[in-house]
From TrEMBL:
UniProt-listed SUPFAM superfamilies: NAD(P)-binding Rossmann-fold domains (SSF51735)
Recorded family membership: Belongs to the short-chain dehydrogenases/reductases (SDR) family.
UniProt-recorded name of the protein: SDR family oxidoreductase
Superkingdom of origin organism: Bacteria
Upper taxonomic lineage: Bacteria, Pseudomonadati, Pseudomonadota, Alphaproteobacteria, Hyphomicrobiales
Length: 262
C-alpha cells in the first residue's frame, strides 16, 4: 500500500527513543521529512543519522523540553526553519510518575498538566490554521490504554491522558471538513524503557522480582507477548497516511487484545 505521504512534513514529539521514535522511523520509511525532538541532542543526532542512511525519507532534529514555557514557540519556529511547514503532527509526551489517586498532589497535577495536556493542545492549535489552508493535516496523539481501562498505580496518567480523549474527539469534529484528521493511538504493553521502568516500580511495590511481574503481565495479554515498537510505529504511520483520510475521532488500540472493554 502506498501511504501517500512521501515528501510530507512531520513533527514527532518525544522522539529520541521509544514509541515516538518508532512512529518517526515508520513515517520516514514512507518518504516523509521528519523532525525529531527531545532532550538528548546526541541521541537525536544519531537517530537522524540512522534514518537518513536508509535513503527513503529525511530526518532533522531539534532540542525541546515541553516543560519549558517557550517550548511551543521554539517548536513552531523550528518547524518553519527546518520543514517550511507541517502536514503531520504526532503529539507524544513522557508518562508521569506512578502512584495512586492519593499520591496526586496539586503540584504534581499542575506540573504534568502543563507538559501532557496544555502544551499538546497549544502546539496543535498553532499549526491548525496552515493545515486548514492547505486542505490536509494529520494529528495523531499518543495516549495509553489506561484511558479505556484505567491502569493500577497510574492514577496521574489515567487522569491527564483521559482529558485528551475529550479534546481529541471535539477537535476531530471541528476540523474534519478541512481534510484534517485527529486520532489517538493507545499503546498497551509495548516493550520500551518506560515499560521496564513501570514493571520495576510494580516489582518493588509488590515485593516481587521483575521477571515475576513481567511474566504475570504477559499472561493477561491474549497475544501472549509484549508488542514491539516497530508494530506500534507502523499503525501510527498508517493513521497519518492518505488512505486513512476517513478515519478520524478514533482511538486505536495497539495492545495485543489486552483491553477487556468493548
Amino acid at each position: 500500500m502506498d501511504f501517500g505521504i512521501s515528501g510530507k512534513r512531520a513533527l514527532v514529539l518525544a522522539s529520541s527513543r521509544g514509541l515516538g521514535l518508532g512512529i518517526a522511523k515508520a513515517l520516514a520509511a514512507e518518504g516523509a521529512h521528519v523532525l525529531l525532538c527531545g532532550r538528548s541532542g546526541e541521541t537525536l543526532a544519531e537517530n537522524c543519522r540512522v534514518i537518513n542512511a536508509e535513503g527513503k525519507g529525511k530526518a532533522d532534529w531539534v532540542w525541546a523540553d515541553l516543560g519549558e514555557e517557550d517550548a511551543v514557540t521554539n517548536l513552531v519556529k523550528a518547524v518553519h526553519d527546518k520543514l517550511g511547514g507541517l502536514d503531520i503532527l504526532v503529539n507524544n509526551t513522557g508518562g508521569p510518575t506512578p502512584g495512586t489517586s492519593e499520591d496526586m498532589s496539586a503540584e504534581k497535577l499542575e506540573s504534568f498538566f502543563q507538559t501532557m495536556v496544555l502544551r499538546v493542545i497549544t502546539l496543535t492549535n498553532a499549526f491548525l490554521p496552515a493545515m486548514k489552508a492547505q486542505g490536509f493535516g494529520r494529528i495523531l496523539t499518543v495516549a495509553s490504554s489506561g484511558v479505556i481501562e484505567p491502569i493500577a498505580n497510574l492514577a496521574l496518567s489515567n487522569t491527564l491522558r483521559g482529558a485528551l480523549v475529550g479534546w481529541n474527539k471535539t477537535l476531530a469534529t471541528e476540523v474534519a471538513g478541512f481534510g484534517i484528521t485527529a486520532n489517538m493511538i493507545l499503546p498497551g504493553r509495548i516493550h520500551t524503557d518506560r515499560i521496564d521502568e513501570l514493571d520495576g516500580a510494580n516489582a518493588k511495590r509488590q515485593g516481587k522480582s521483575l521477571e515475576e511481574v513481567r511474566s504475570a503481565s504477559i499472561k493477561t495479554i491474549p497475544a501472549g507477548r509484549l508488542g514491539t515498537v516497530e508494530e506500534f510505529g507502523a499503525v501510527g504511520a498508517f493513521l497519518c497516511s492518505g488512505p486513512a483520510a476517513y478515519v478520524t475521532g478514533s482511538m486505536i488500540r495497539v495492545d495485543g487484545g489486552a483491553a477487556r472493554s468493548l
